[in-house]
Amino acid sequence: MTLDIGSVAPDFTLKSQHGEDVTLSSFRGERNVVVVFFPFAFSGICTGELCEIRDNLDQFEADNAEIIAISCDHFFSNRAFADRDGYAFTILSDFWPHGEVSKTYGTFNEGAGAPNRGTYVIDREGVLRWKVEHGIPDARDLSQYHAALADLS
């Protein structure tokens, strides 16, 4: 499935690294949301990308944006990953049914059993305003996220 810019982002509810349910639509009317799919907790590129988000979290807060990172790792693994690297943003588990949300967003990699590197900027009304999709070995450019959020101001 491919998501079109200007369409309503598919809603979902997944478990956070703390075992709490988080629903995308709960941010409607309140905050923009940056959904960041990543393949594997504790892997090199994923760690680098999420540490870059961690180190620039104040910029996302200034853009009134909520960061939601999603992997197919179990929420216990995501908790250990978040605790190890000090991630203060939400990391969700698309563990079961395996990759269901990743598939809905069109970023699931069947061969790897994990999402590709897809990032989706969703405005306060729940509409997809920007996206970038890369394969597993290709890191994303964080500055693109901020440019997309600046367009929402």
Largest pleated sheet: 7 strands, mixed
CATH architecture: 3-Layer(aba) Sandwich
Strand content: 25-35%
Strand segment tally: 9
* Number of H/I helices: 5
Helix percentage? 25-40%
- Identify the strand order in the major beta sheet: 2-1-5-4-3-8-9
CATH class: Alpha Beta
Short account of what is shown:
The protein is α+β, with helices and mostly antiparallel strands.
What would you note in describing this structure?
The protein is α+β, with helices and mostly antiparallel strands. The protein has a single domain, classed as Glutaredoxin (3-Layer(aba) Sandwich). It is 28% helix and 27% strand. The protein has 5 helices and 9 strands, in the order βββααβαβαββββα. It has helices at residues 44-55, 57-62, 75-85, 100-104, 142-150; strands at residues 13-16, 21-23, 32-37, 65-71, 90-93, 108-109, 114-115, 117-122, 128-134. The strands form 2 sheets. The protein has a 7-stranded mixed β-sheet. Strands 6-7 form a two-stranded antiparallel sheet. Strand 1 (13-16) and strand 2 (21-23) form a beta hairpin. The chain is globular and about 35 Å long. The N and C termini lie far apart (29 Å). The mean pLDDT is 96.
Defining traits:
153 residues, alpha+beta, Glutaredoxin, two-stranded antiparallel ribbon, globular
